[in-house]
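Follow-up to my earlier ticket, as requested here are the two runs.
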Amino acid sequence: MAAEYSRELGVKVYAGQKRLAELGFKQGGCAGYGLRRMLVSSDGVRKQELAFGERKSLFTDRVILVPGPAEEVQCVRNIYRMLVEEGRTVHSIVTHLKKTGVPSPGKQWDYNTLNSILSRPKYMGCHVFGRDSTKLCTRAIHKPTSEWTLTSSAFEPIIDPVTFRKAQHILLRRTHEIGNEEFLEKLRTLLTEKGKLTGRLITQTPNMPGLSTYLHRFGTLREAFMLAGYDVGKYMASLDVRLRTKMLREQLVSEIVKLFPHEVTVIQRQRRFRKILRFRNGRLVSLLIARTIPARDGQVKWRLRPTRREIRSATVIARLNSTNTDFHDFYLFPRLDRLCQFQITLHDKWLDGGRCLASLSELREATQRMFNRSRKKKRSKSTIDV
């Protein structure tokens, strides 16, 4: 009944958000470069501009987008002018903005930042809602354009619709009308000039297609580099290790779910977030894979890279064998006490803070004991405080 109620409530909430989006009200998220969020009353009267992190306090108030500072608005218009009228490439515009010292919305101007400005309909005053769908802690799903909620003339435009559509046509023509062989020829030219191929070189080289274009055309950078005649052995060695580690992590998640099918569920907020486990008692357990690294003194060492958003959860440390092809042992920690990357040895004293698991079948019982122990500590502490 609780699950059915959650599903029904989710449908109602989404329907309400969609209705407000059709009226031209923003449902959440950042405004974007050159734009700001404006708080309006229920009858459309503007009240105040919202700063970063601020939210509306009244249930009946709404939020719309308005043009931001004059210098940012002019910068957006200059970007479209350089693309449409001057025929510059995205990389050329990025280089120009860096040389002229124009303040960037992030650390610095890059391809992704500029491409976002050139491809978002909000700059021509059109509100878009429902690009992605994430329901009940499931993976984010990218919905087709036909399922988006589009509301034209919802905001005051910075770019006129004709210029915006010309920009989309130019961006589309530069990639879709070029054959695969021409893309490979650009890689061969870059290889001749630099002597190697990397993702960073592709991003930093003017007049080169973006990484996403190569991934879309060839599936992986490895395939594109090989077709261009580049030996990917050294460059892809670290990538191979990361992919192998990712596969082992997926294997570990599947194995734990098979051991406790009615006790464990898998949670993944979005594709860019890692999967974590949630037991039936509500306890969250994250998985951290520790790869072996070469050591000069001959001693076996493991490198751990904690994730800040997971350090408060119970964590299973899975150490790999010397070849990083299988698991060596498992340790369960109530939480991690370190935020940065660190290394441990075979019998490291830091491991005393956790419990060594003889097998994964002990995970459920060990997690329950750890949960009960922490709950008793909280109760005893509250009793002392009283």
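Run two:
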Amino acid sequence: MKPLNARSYRGPVRAVVTDLAGTVIDFGSCAPAGAFVELFARSRVTVTPAQARGPMGLHKRDHIATLAALPEVAAQWEAAHGAPCGEADIDALYATFIPLQVACLADHGDLIPGVVEAVAALREKDIRIAATTGYNREMLETVLACAEKQGFVPDAAVCAEDVAGGRPAPWMNFRAMEQLGVFPPASVVAIGDTIPDIASAVNAGVWAVGVTETGNMLGLSQAECAALNAGEREHLLTEAADLMYAAGAHYVINGFQELPGLVGQISRAMVEGKRP
């Protein structure tokens, strides 16, 4: 077999590595945002939904630590507990978070419209599909069970605790590629709805595709999104896309349903010698 490497590869996309919440399931990525708000409320600390969404995409323990380090959150914590939030507190919060998150995942387990059809179109092109997530293994299995009932079954699935470090490190992308048996990075598209998703893809040297409408960047449920007028929607989508491009995204789309057409575009670009 001719060696496949970033310099010589001039073929089509061979794999898609996709985030889960906000990208293929849970329109608006509502499950994790709500769980973080509730988690801190139980410790007498107020975290707003906007603050809870800020670190989205990170390993969930890292997410908690990032929230706890916000100045306004840190001040509340010290006032409520008489000392700064330390590593032992983060560990305790994460231990509380796990069952809290698992309990609400099934309530936010609907696939995003168009995902099943998009995956079928990708597989018609012999493109393999892997899923990655900042959830732990128990959360991942819960989400995958919901997704399977609706027709979405990835060829591989990797969570943050499977690797040395979660996003923005590239390790989940690399582990997914290893499980799929697909390389080089130039033949892989990674898609997600958060800035850490984009950073992880860029760090892995794969094609980085951002999602705006269905995920964390807008942070709206499907009903809330549908209620926007055309001007509001366009403004929010443009603002979200600008942030993702600034983070290094090669392309930004509204939702996963647009991915098959974009993958065709990327494949044509690679045949012409372009690289991520």
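The only thing I checked on run two: The chain has twelve helices and six strands. Let me know what else you need.
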